[in-house]
Amino acid sequence: MVSAVLLAALASSALAAAPMTKINIVLKDQAGKPVDHASVVVRFVQGHSVVKLGKAIRTTFELRSNQEGEARIPSIPQGKILVQVIAKGYQTFGQTFAVTEEEKTLDITLNPPQQQYSAH
């Protein structure tokens, strides 16, 4: 009887140890137009425990943005996440965000490539 209560307490604390968040990333260019087919990588960097009931939680997602410039991450642990975006015709984007909400929308504006310089 005591072991069942202890097991239930451990299970509920394991669930509470890894609060999750859903992330919606919206990619636009400087004119406000959506950027589709961009490669988006989201990686959990640090924060709450990434183990839930003894199973490791997925902490890295690689996907592409849709025609509206959106990339949806279903569920990732709350804490610091690194977002990297690579899109043809734009500068590579990389930034760390602190996420503590259950749902978060990240609006990212991609910049055109910088002019290349030559030493010759």
Could you explain the architecture of this structure?
The protein has one domain (2-109): Immunoglobulins (Immunoglobulin-like). It has a four-stranded antiparallel sheet, with no helix packed on it. Strands 6-1-9 form a three-stranded mixed sheet, with no helix packed on it. It has a two-stranded antiparallel sheet with strand order 3-4. A hairpin with a 2-residue loop joins strand 3 (51-52) and strand 4 (55-56). The longest helix is centred in the first third of the chain and has 15 residues, at 2-16. It contains one helix and nine strands, in the order αβββββββββ. It is mostly beta strands and 120 residues long. It has one helix spanning 2-16, and strands at 20-28, 39-47, 51-52, 55-56, 60-64, 70-77, 79-86, 93-99, 103-109.
Give the SSE layout.
Elements: H1 2-16, E1 20-28, E2 39-47, E3 51-52, E4 55-56, E5 60-64, E6 70-77, E7 79-86, E8 93-99, E9 103-109
Parallel strand pairs: 1-9
Antiparallel strand pairs: 1-6, 2-5, 2-7, 3-4, 7-8
